[in-house]
């Protein structure tokens, strides 16, 4: 099973390589613009968006190419296919968090008075993971064409939640807010795990 999952992950990463190069270039441009201004929040937000969108794009590419019909003739299960998408999501989010942590550490070392607090990375990462948790089952249920508009609606909802957070609490971090952030993080992880089982069930029932 590990060998098959590795193959599925490699296939997705190779398919996403052109898009990944474009996103890396965009990120560098945004980084050059926003980081010197001290506005690293935007950079963190973009990293989490990229981490959430790349696995969705992979699923959409598979759907458009009707790859699933071919994949199901291989010695892999439907659960393996879904698992590879969720593992890829975890990998991208881990990379995004590591890069964000490095940027936060450097910013704090150079300009501690204007550095974005690390808890913001946790908050944005949690919301990004929650976004993926909602979108994956929709893609497996309705397909990429029908779920396309839902993708942007959900992204707008996540953006509104993030803006609402800062409208209510600002950038200060008190003991109570730390509890809320931890609850958000734990809730997002729980939603991601539940989303995985829902997606497996939907994909196992899907006809191609």
Q: Which properties best describe this structure?
A:
208 residues; 6 helices; mainly alpha; single chain
Give an overview of the whole structure.
With 208 residues, the protein is mainly α. It has one domain. It has six helices and no strands. Helix 1 packs antiparallel against helix 2, helix 1 packs parallel to helix 4 and helix 4 packs across helix 5. The two termini are 23 Å apart. The model has no long low-confidence stretch (mean pLDDT 79).
What is the overall silhouette? Answer: globular
End-to-end C-alpha gap: 23 Å
The number of helices is: 6
Number of strands: 0
Could you say which structural class the secondary elements and strand pairing correspond to?
mainly alpha
The main β sheet shows up as: none
> What is the C-alpha radius of gyration, as a whole number of Å?
18 Å
Low-confidence stretches: none
Give average pLDDT, whole number. 79
The helix/strand order is HHHHHH
Strand content: under 5%
Question: What is the total domain count?
Answer: 1
How is this structure best summarized?
With 208 residues, this protein is mainly α.
Q: Could you outline the blueprint of secondary structure elements for this entry?
A:
Layout: H1 2-34, H2 40-65, H3 67-71, H4 78-110, H5 118-169, H6 175-205
Helix pairs in contact: 1-2, 1-4, 2-4, 2-5, 4-5, 4-6, 5-6
């Amino acid at each position: 099973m590990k060998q098959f999952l590795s193959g599925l992950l490699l296939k997705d990463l190779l398919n996403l390589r052109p898009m990944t190069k474009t996103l890396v270039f965009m990120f560098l441009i945004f980084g050059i613009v926003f980081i010197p201004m001290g506005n690293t929040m935007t950079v963190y937000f973009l990293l989490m968006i990229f981490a959430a969108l790349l696995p969705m794009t992979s699923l959409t590419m598979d759907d458009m190419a009707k790859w699933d019909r071919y994949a199901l003739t291989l010695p892999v299960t439907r659960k393996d296919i879904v698992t590879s998408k969720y593992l890829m999501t975890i990998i991208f989010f881990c990379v995004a968090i590591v890069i964000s942590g490095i940027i936060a550490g450097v910013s704090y070392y150079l300009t501690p008075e204007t550095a974005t607090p690390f808890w913001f990375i946790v908050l944005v990462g949690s919301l990004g993971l929650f976004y993926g948790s909602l979108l994956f089952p929709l893609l497996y249920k309705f397909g990429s064409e029908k779920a396309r508009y839902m993708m942007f609606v959900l992204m707008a909802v996540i953006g509104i939640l993030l803006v609402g957070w800062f409208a209510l609490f600002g950038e200060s971090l008190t003991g109570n807010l730390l509890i809320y952030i931890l609850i958000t993080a734990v809730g997002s992880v729980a939603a991601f795990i539940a989303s995985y089982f829902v997606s497996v069930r939907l994909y196992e029932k899907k006809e191609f």
